Amino acid sequence: MNVTYRRIYEEASPSDGTRVLVDRVWPRGMRKDSARLDEWMRDVAPSTELRRWYGHDPDRFTEFRRRYFAELREPERRDAAERLRELAEEHDLTLLTATRDVDHSQAAVLAEWLRTHS
Which domain of life is it from (predicted)? Predict the structure, then answer.
């Protein structure tokens, strides 16, 4: 299973495989026709409450990761998470986010979750 993550604003690469946006909100300044996405999976993104609590504060990342893992087991995210797992098993998968610090993003957490919960 090859799962990577990166910013949606970066140039698409043939090595990306299937490209999936995992943000709840469409990226600012990005035109839909230039995003080069295969899917936009809003339902797998963290809840609005969790996102606001986290605020992309690296000091909160460990707790954010723990809470987000718990959310991925909830019914409203489980189907989307399972769809991501299927995509990752079939093709190389690149999770896309608008977040500047991708190593402390939901895309990084999702990539880890997919690698460890298969």
Answer: Bacteria
- Which pTM was predicted? 0.93
Give the whole-angstrom CA distance, residue 106 versus residue 51.
9
Rounded Cα distance, 45 and 32, in Å: 18
**What is the DSSP annotation of the chain?**
--EEEEETTSPP-GGG-EEEE--SSPPTT--GGGS--SEE-GGGSPPHHHHHHHTT-GGGHHHHHHHHHHHHTSHHHHHHHHHHHHHHHHS-EEEEE--S-GGGSHHHHHHHHHHH--
Domains of the chain: total: 1
Rounded CA separation 21/28 (Å): 13
Residue type present at position 27: P
Biggest CA–CA distance in the chain, Å, is 36
pLDDT in tens, 39-53: 999 999 999 999 999
pLDDT digits (tens, 9 = 90+) for 87-100: 999 999 999 999 99
